[in-house]
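Hi Q.,

Before the meeting this afternoon, I wanted you to have the magnesium ion prediction in hand. No need to reply - just skim if you have a minute. The sequence and ligand are here:
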Amino acid sequence: MKIVIMPGDGIGPEVTHEAVRVIEALGLGIDMKQAAVGGAAYKAYGHPLPPETLAIAEAADGILFGAVGDPDCDTLERHLRPEQAILGLRKALTLFANLRPAKVFKGLEDHSALRPEVASAIDLLIVRELNGDVYFGEKGYRTAADGTREGYDVMSYCESEVRRIAHVAFRAAQGRKGRLCSVDKANVLETSQLWRDVVVEIHKEYPDVQLSHMYVDNAAMQLVRNPGQFDVIVTGNLFGDILSDQASMCVGSIGMLASASLGERKTAHGTYGLYEPIHGSAPDIAGQGLANPMATILSAAMLLRHSLGQAAAADRIEAAVGKALEDGVLGRDLGGRAGTTEIGDAVLARL
Ligand SMILES: NC(=O)c1ccc[n+]([C@@H]2O[C@H](COP(=O)([O-])OP(=O)(O)OC[C@H]3O[C@@H](n4cnc5c(N)ncnc54)[C@H](O)[C@@H]3O)[C@@H](O)[C@H]2O)c1
Ligand SMILES: CC(C)[C@H](C(=O)O)[C@@H](O)C(=O)O
Ligand SMILES: [Mg+2]
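Predicted structure with the ligand bound:
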């Protein structure tokens, strides 16, 4: 079992360090390598995703990714910015299905941005498409007819891209409560109309799943009004990015939401994938030992489950995180005082 750790920038190295300690403590004999990404890789090698990093990633069974993003790099040409590392990995490795589960842990009901009785009902999965949409369309700066500057990013989805993510989402719903809500903006966007048409077609293959559709503006509202109504949400790259940050605050903090990015490639142990917290490099708290590493530790659990076939070990990690929270080990993001290392220690002690 081989995995590659990509710490990245800002709080990325701090949170991945804690997740690595947890993986090591399980004693599974996993071979771990480190590889440079993001602003750190740009500063060391002149590129946010050096070819060596991609080669190491391809040779492993899975990737544990911290976060990328560095304010020093925000004025670089776009293809050299840290964020290109994560976008490049997702695209180059065809990791098109991003699973972002959001569930309220026991003891966190009072720490949600929502009322406890609303928050406690949350147990949803966002299935976000990751290889298409406005993220990867033609983009640029040009001069408009009146001589002023214009920026543009083309939004599009082709049928096959929608089909493959729809299958992932329907199968996920079959394994849960059997409800799938497809979120789009079909009242305005042709991209979304195609999305909706294809999802309806694929539904014929999953008659046991109850399918509904919701416009993204309404979905944002429903996520805070009554998030308990959702089981699985399937949506495009941009809407999924936004809704998942929103869902994180509904369960308590952005420092709690893990994710798995999967494709179709199988390894000797499971499905090849990249695992990362949904948050970024948090430059405002980087280097201060304040970051909550739980999202990254929970991402490591997803890695063990999906890419390494180690479901029991994944359960152990999730249970240890749950116990730490129940025992009141809360980071500042959740209104507590525990620092990054202290949270890591608390999870290790409960493994
Ligand atoms: N996948 C990724 O690597 C990824 C994801 C999102 C943003 N980014 C990048 O990160 C940089 C900062 O972006 P941003 O500020 O919009 O988003 P962010 O997620 O980094 O931070 C948003 C807010 O949440 C807080 N926060 C985030 N993670 C936390 C944690 N684990 N514990 C406690 N608090 C936490 C931060 O302190 C900040 O106040 C940008 O360069 C952005 O492009 C990268
Ligand atoms: C850093 C950025 C490219 C990324 C995205 O938009 O996908 C991030 O916000 C995320 O949620 O993983
Ligand atoms: Mg995001």
